[in-house]
């Protein structure tokens, strides 16, 4: 059987960078990717025969653990009935009903195929509903790879954006306004400078793409109030936080009522799914009920719906508080191990998510997250991986635990960390 090195060499000839999504290439930590052949629970096995305890969990979806029997069984049963129908099926209705039941702010949903599609479509809806074009997002916030969201601040002009990648016309991101996470005054300023032009504020209610950054006291409720004051929609991007920080997502945990919610990852149980939903008055604008067009050949795919439904039903039986407590214990111990090696460490944690930033902290936004020491992190990553612990290959990603992680997994992780030399 080909090993990871061999597969990566071949992959690089036919896939840009050898991968289908950039971070997987492990470039920022100076490693080559591991090719995985099998997963179960908290573990993965590579083409090289190595067993690893996984803290990436497919970048969030596998909260129940990899290859959960109930999810596998549901998906296999579904696939036997056919991979795709192109007509409605019962599981779409059941999953939509369950999402609306569990998420406090959601009356209706539309299924799509990725988180990117969810946020892109929610933005279109917000623009249509408000008749405005601009959108506020936050530095270090990630909402998928559609043009409008790929903006970074340009030349110190706080209210203007330049594209974060070639291929995005400047005009496409000119309406993307950037503020810092946890900076309400900055958001107010953007609203005041763009009167009656902002359609929506898009926020990760716990930021997960600059590492884990928690909403400060009053941040999310302040955004809600500002959106109400200036007539914009508040859109929670719960692609990571949905069903993870609480069964009812961040909106339940923090008691905030967003207008629209974007979901993905967990609701597909590992299959390609995204979804956006919200209050009926907004969602009824979506075609064919309303006039805002959005469609998808494979949207509501029966296999993905079955897997998502099985996942959510299993999650309803799980003890979130217990996993949160165990995750905090693990992360706290990891922090003290790294500190004992003379490193500055800031731990940000919520539920089954944590990031150890190698910096003094506090880490409350992208600039403070950016002070973390990437070089030392790269050494940590490589040694942990060699010892059989798969952490995310970037200091700006979260570690995820799952309901399948055992105390033995955590002990192995701590032992690996103790042995790391930095
Ligand atoms: N929003 C958030 C908060 C995400 O973390 C991601 C992906 N990591 C996306 C949107 C995009 O989702 P996808 O990769 O499924 O397109």
Short description:
The chain has 422 residues and is α/β, with parallel strands linked by helices. It has helices at residues 4-14, 69-80, 90-102, 115-130, 170-173, 184-193, 219-230, 249-254, 280-283, 302-315, 320-340, 366-369, 374-386, 407-419, and strands at 36-40, 43-46, 51-54, 108-112, 134-138, 151-154, 157-163, 176-179, 198-203, 233-237, 260-263, 274-278, 346-350, 353-357, 389-390, 399-400. The protein folds into 2 domains: 4-64 and 319-419, Aspartate Aminotransferase, domain 1 (Alpha-Beta Complex); 69-315, Type I PLP-dependent aspartate aminotransferase-like (Major domain) (Aspartate Aminotransferase, domain 2, 3-Layer(aba) Sandwich), CATH 3.40.640.10.
Overall number of structural domains: 2
Return residue spans where pLDDT drops below 50 for at least 5 consecutive residues. 153-160
Bound molecule types: 4'-deoxy-4'-aminopyridoxal-5'-phosphate
Helix content: 25-40%
User: What average pLDDT do the residues reach?
Assistant: 95
The CATH architecture of the largest domain can be given as 3-Layer(aba) Sandwich
Query: How do the SSEs run, as a string of H and E?
Result: HEEEHHEHEEEHEHEHEHEEHHHEEHHEEH
Q: The CATH topology of the largest domain is what? A: Aspartate Aminotransferase, domain 2
Helix/strand class: alpha/beta
Number of strands: 16
- According to CATH, what is the class of the largest domain? Alpha Beta
């Amino acid at each position: 059987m080909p090993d990871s090195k061999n597969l990566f060499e071949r992959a690089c000839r036919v896939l840009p960078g050898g991968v289908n999504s950039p971070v997987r290439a492990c470039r920022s930590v100076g490693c080559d990717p591991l090719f995985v052949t099998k997963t179960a629970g908290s573990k993965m096995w590579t083409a090289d025969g190595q067993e690893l305890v996984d803290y990436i969990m497919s970048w969030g979806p596998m909260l129940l653990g990899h290859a959960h029997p109930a999810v596998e069984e549901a998906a296999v049963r579904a696939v036997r009935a056919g991979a795709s129908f192109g007509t409605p099926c019962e599981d779409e209705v059941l999953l939509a009903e369950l999402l609306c039941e569990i998420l406090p702010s959601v009356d209706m949903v539309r299924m799509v195929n990725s988180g990117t599609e969810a946020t892109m479509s929610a933005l279109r809806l917000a623009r249509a509903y408000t008749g405005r074009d601009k959108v506020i997002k936050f530095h270090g916030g990630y909402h998928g790879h559609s043009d409008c969201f790929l903006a970074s601040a340009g030349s110190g002009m706080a209210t203007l954006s330049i594209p974060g990648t070639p291929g995005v016309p400047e005009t496409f991101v000119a309406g993307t306004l950037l503020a810092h996470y946890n900076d309400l005054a900055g958001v107010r300023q953007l609203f005041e400078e763009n009167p009656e032009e902002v359609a929506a504020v898009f926020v990760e209610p716990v930021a997960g793409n600059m590492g884990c950054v928690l909403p400060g006291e009053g941040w999310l409720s302040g955004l809600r109030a500002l959106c109400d004051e200036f007539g914009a929609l508040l859109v929670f991007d719960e692609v990571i936080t949905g069903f993870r920080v609480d069964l009812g997502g961040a909106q339940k945990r923090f008691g905030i009522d967003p207008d629209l919610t974007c979901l993905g990852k967990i609701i597909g149980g590992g299959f390609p799914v995204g979804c956006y939903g919200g209050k009926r008055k907004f969602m009824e604008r979506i075609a064919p009920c309303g006039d805002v067009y959005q469609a998808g050949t494979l949207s509501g795919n029966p296999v993905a719906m079955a897997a998502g439904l099985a996942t959510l039903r299993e999650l309803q039986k799980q003890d979130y508080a217990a996993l949160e407590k165990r995750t905090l214990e693990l992360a706290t111990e990891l922090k003290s191990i790294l500190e004992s090696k003379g490193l500055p460490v800031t731990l940000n944690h919520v539920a089954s998510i944590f990031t150890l930033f190698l910096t003094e902290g506090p880490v409350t936004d992208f600039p403070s997250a950016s002070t973390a020491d990437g070089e030392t992190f790269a050494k940590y990553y490589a040694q942990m991986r060699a010892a059989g612990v798969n952490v995310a290959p970037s200091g700006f990603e979260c570690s995820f635990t799952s309901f399948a992680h055992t105390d033995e997994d955590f002990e192995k992780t701590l032992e690996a960390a103790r042995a790391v030399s930095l």
